[in-house]
Specification:
The chain has 296 residues and is of the alpha/beta class. It is built from eleven helices and five strands; from the N terminus they run αααααααβββαβαβαα.
Length: 296
Amino acid sequence: MSPRSKREYLAAIVKRYRTASRSIKTVILNEFCSTCGYHRKHALRLIRTFRRFTSKTPAKRGRRPFYDPDLLRIPLTRIWKAANLPCSKRLKAIIALWLPGYIKTYGPIPEKTAVVLLRISAPTIDRILKPVRAEQAGHGRSTTKPGTLLKRHIPVKVNQWDESKPGFLEADTVAHCGSSTDGLFVNTIDCVDIATGWTEQRAVWGKNHQDVITQIKDIERCLPFPIRGFDVDNGSEFLNHHLLRYLTENRVRPVQFTRSRAYPRTIMPMWSRRTGPMYGNGSAMIVWTVRGSLHS
């Protein structure tokens, strides 16, 4: 008789043995010993210690948690949202700067909570904010409509520019569409020089290629250095014959016109790093830029 069969036989007789009378228990025990070849004392021990389909729950390893997630989740969430959803490492660095404003806005917090917020680590912030980030995981609205006509003529930027020289720009558009992308709305053309960090913004109504080129010409006139390279995303406001001719033809030194790969999550890290927080809440600066561009 195999060990597995013996365990199955034991499971079958345990309940009947425990509820039987003394005389019936003797019969069951004798039958169990003769069938499995067990000693009587060993058989009694097996019946007494039998547990049906249960396993010992392993103890949780590691030290006990030092932070109370429920206590810290509310202030961390408020600061995280007010700071435009930064990563945990950046959030840890700015907590000390944002904490006085948080106390002024939402009232005082316990001293112990303030101390914990100042010493909390980035991985702990990730664990505490994990359920909050899951609720914010929806994709934002995108207004980039791919221009496929000139993808063969405008190469993907694969080489490294000489970032020590000014003039290599990354450009993109920011849509000020509110909660809906229907109809026409104002877009900001933003250009960032990689070497110096110099930024130029211009507002344009819609994404008409003539208006876009007009604003790019104005940006070029205002730059204190010539344009050497111009890297854009795959939007149709940039990938068109008009901008290609403007940057590459009738120039003493043609501009190196390149584009990014289609549909990456981080298309232009330099542009995002320089302008990402600027347009988070639709500040008055954008209104001023729009008025200056459309009504000048």
